[in-house]
Amino acid sequence: MTNSNWTGKKVLITGVCGTVGRELLKQIEVQNPAEILGVDNNESELFFSDVEYRAQPHINFALGDVRDRDRMIQLMNGMDIVLHSAAYKHVSLCEKSPRDAVQTNIHGTQNIIDAAIANNVERVLFTSSDKAVNPTNVMGTSKLMGERLMTAANMQKRGDGPIFASTRFGNVLGSRGSVIPLFKKQIASGGPVTLTDARMSRFIMTLSEAVKLVMESTFLAKGGEVFVTKMPVMRIEDLANAMVLELAPDSGMEVTEIGSQPGEKLYEELMNNEEMRRTIELDNYFVLVPPFPAVHTRIVYEYPDKKADSVAKPYNSDTEVAMTQDALHQYLVKNALV
């Protein structure tokens, strides 16, 4: 189905070679944009993407790094919409290399903001993470700072400058950062399937679902909000058992615990106690309104599918009802995740 909001727009996607960036390209491509410019610092993957889309002259790719402010200003010239998905996302690697996480996830986001203001683009959406809520590691802290920078940029803007907003979602099942590829590999090699902790729960969604909601929130945004995507909850133990049931049903394969990793939470949070006090509920989202009003303009936070002006509790995978193992198994099969 075509969404007329994207028709005729010039769209820049950072991190276009990543899981989310690639799916954004795929879904926006069919919305009749005037141009899509995919930006990444992964030369090899960018080359293969360029070859794949060579027959479509309105889709182009450029080598660039969000750490390079001048390059971002240059590439953003003439763009209408910027979808910022470039980031360092692996918790353990960011913990070992915090300087690099800061340079890409924090300074890189500020460079995107500066470039958008310099080119007077219409909208900028930052893709964040559940790990930005009450962060326990460098990666989550850097993503939280990215959200704060987007909100602050919107608070300080003058006139008809860019609308800045963020969207926050949990685990994208089947992506390179999810546990599904690891479980598949363990099952294929005869097991055992290893869990860090059987009590662990996570918010989940498919890649297609995640990107559709990113695209929708881009045009819902009034400025400075964080859109928290509603999604189902699973227990990691149920995921492991459901995958064994589907991929090796008669194997008797063991599912064993190996202990939680440093900085790893037993549950995920998408909205904390402080944020719930300034949250509006929509059909598909919770909208976290900025804690401070815009300095130079008045923003009215009204949305067409509003359900409530407030929420009664934080959004936490430990307090939400998890899918049953059977329901999770059906979800995995339906979405071709196993």
Shape descriptor reads globular
Quaternary organisation of the protein chains: single chain
The largest pleated sheet is described as: 10 strands, mixed
CATH names the topology as Rossmann fold
Q: Give the strand line-up of the largest sheet.
A: 3-2-1-4-5-6-10-15-14-16
- Measured as a percent range, the helix fraction is 25-40%
Figure out the total of helices: 11
Give the DSSP E fraction (strand runs of 2 or more residues): 15-25%
At CATH's second level, what is the architecture?
Answer: 3-Layer(aba) Sandwich
End-to-end Cα distance, whole Å, is: 27 Å
Please name the fourth-level CATH homologous superfamily. NAD(P)-binding Rossmann-like Domain
> What letter string, H or E per element, gives the SSE order?
EHEHEHEHHEHEEHEEHEEHEEHEEEEH
CATH class category name: Alpha Beta
Based on secondary structure, the structural category is alpha/beta
How many structurally independent domains? 1
Low-confidence segments, given as residue ranges, are none
E-strand count: 17
What Rg do the Cα atoms give? Answer: 20 Å
Average pLDDT rating? 93
